[in-house]
Design brief:
CATH architecture of one domain: 3-Layer(aba) Sandwich
Distance between the termini: 58 Å
Bound molecules: pyridoxal-5'-phosphate
CATH class of one domain: Alpha Beta
Strand order of the largest sheet: 1-4-5-15-10-11-14
Length: about 450
């Protein structure tokens, strides 16, 4: 007992030198994004005004399985990578399960979540292409925080549009961004045409991600040398996140184990893809029987109850049409406290994989997620992000099933972030002020009726 190993690390020279692009190995490739006006497949040039060119190429790359991590990005990864792979002995004991539970701890990044893995890469490519300014939107503030640090690391100016209600309710994430030197504007704002229009029509509008996206894209397309960046959903974001799974694969080998079940929470799919895709390559190529479980909130169930359709990536309909599992781009999820999971659609790679039966999805109620988060905190000593608690709840379900059957399964989940800046939501949970949200089939059908 006393000699058992709790945490596994990799030496610096074992930090991955390449990201894994699962598109190259997929039997059924993702369908192309479409131009909404013509419904023709998008050409890379169509996206150049918005994103750095290299990111567009990564987005559409269906041939190269391995993509080099630039040395400058790898150097910054070394500030916090490898992240620990941890055996959750405390949680196992509390559950009385024969399962072996491991988690990859992405909460140790300087900004507290996995998002930095892609922020550093995106800032690097922008800098390399001579871009001086970047923009983005942020809801709960995790992506904005990560990008603020990444922009500073590469000497870029960053303008963040933060949904007004979060700007006011989550002042600490805003101050984190400002500490790193970003300019943070509450959205809707008077600084863009899109913002002015909404404020003129609805002076008290509290903002939404859709509006913030519109403002950020408008700035990127009207200011010279300025590009837009996104922290989830897109293929290149999941690509950068595969550093998580590639490390985990080596660390599991150090532990002498291989996962039977891999679990991650699901907003747009980047931390899920980041952990799962490197393992999934063995399922696709060698037929390895591993299960991949995405844990989404019951109040925003695009994978378990949405439809596979072409839909817009944003509320306002500015983005290309993407083939994805969606609840409809005008779906307004309930205000659950896992802000990072309140997104109407799923990335196109993950959507294709779900359609092809390579992965599965479960939905988790808000109260179950917080109960799981508290048990994890009490047994492992880390307060998880409300998003990550969805993965923990799904892991607990799997582990309890093992208890019934006596199976000694190996379960690996991603701890995508810590919850230390989300204590207001824990407060609400502990004082009994949180609730579950249910959605009727009629509500879901109503939102999807205009899509084809
Ligand atoms: C943003 C975020 C998520 C959800 O995004 P994905 O792209 O689905 O990974 C999950 N956990 C944390 C901590 C986040 O910040």
């Amino acid at each position: 007992m006393s000699n058992r190993i709790k945490r596994y690390f990799l030496p610096e020279d074992q930090i991955p030198t390449q990201w894994y692009n699962i598109q190259a190995d997929m039997v059924n490739k993702p369908l192309p994004p479409l131009n909404p006006a013509t419904r023709e497949p998008l050409k890379p040039e169509d996206l150049y005004p918005i994103f750095a060119k290299e990111l567009v190429h990564q987005e559409l790359n269906q041939t190269d399985a391995w993509i080099d991590i630039p040395e400058e990005v790898r150097e910054l990864y070394k500030n916090y990578r490898s992240t620990p792979l941890v055996r959750a002995y405390g949680l196992e004991k509390a559950l009385g399960t024969p399962a072996h539970i491991y988690f990859k701890n992405e909460s140790v990044s300087p900004v507290g979540s996995h998002k930095l893995n892609s922020a550093l890469a995106q800032a690097y490519y922008c800098k390399k292409e001579g871009i001086t300014n970047i923009t983005t939107e942020t809801g709960a503030g995790q992506w904005g925080a990560a990008l603020s640090y990444a922009a500073k690391a590469f000497g870029l100016e960053l303008a963040v549009y933060m949904v007004k209600v979060s700007y006011e309710q989550k002042p600490y994430r805003r101050s984190i961004m400002q500490t790193f030197g970003a300019q943070v504007t509450a959205s809707p704002s008077m600084s863009t045409k899109a913002g002015r229009k909404i404020l003129t029509d609805h002076p008290n509008y509290q903002g939404s991600l859709g509006t913030a996206i519109s403002e950020a894209i408008e700035l990127a397309t009207t200011v010279p040398n300025c590009k837009y960046t996104l922290g989830s959903v897109l293929n290149h974001v999941a690509l950068h996140q595969t550093v998580i799974g590639l490390e985990a694969e080596k660390q599991m080998a150090l532990a002498g184990e291989y996962p039977d079940v891999v679990v991650a929470c699901f907003g747009g799919g980047s931390n899920f893809g980041g952990l799962c895709f490197p393992f999934m390559r063995h399922t696709i190529k060698e037929g390895r029987k591993t299960r991949y479980v995405a844990a989404e909130p019951a109040s925003c169930p695009k994978l378990t109850r949405g439809k596979f359709l072409y839909d817009f990536g944003d509320e306002a309909g500015y983005t290309p049409l993407l083939p994805m599992f969606t609840l409809g781009h005008n779906f307004a999820p309930a205000h659950i406290h896992a802000g990072g999971l309140r997104y109407h659609g799923a990335g196109v790679i993950v959507s294709q994989l779900l359609k092809d039966g390579l992965m599965e999805a479960v939905d988790i109620d808000q109260l179950d997620s917080f109960a799981a988060g508290c048990l994890f905190a009490q047994t492992e000593g880390i307060i998880p992000a409300p998003e990550s608690s969805h993965a923990i709840a799904a892991t607990i379900r799997e582990a309890n099933r093992c208890k019934e059957t006596g199976e000694e399964k190996v379960i690996l989940f991603n701890l995508s972030g810590h919850g230390l800046i989300d204590m207001a939501s824990y407060d609400k949970y502990l004082s009994g002020d949180l609730q579950n949200y249910t959605l009727s089939d009629e509500q879901i059908a109503e939102n999807l009726k205009d899509l084809k």
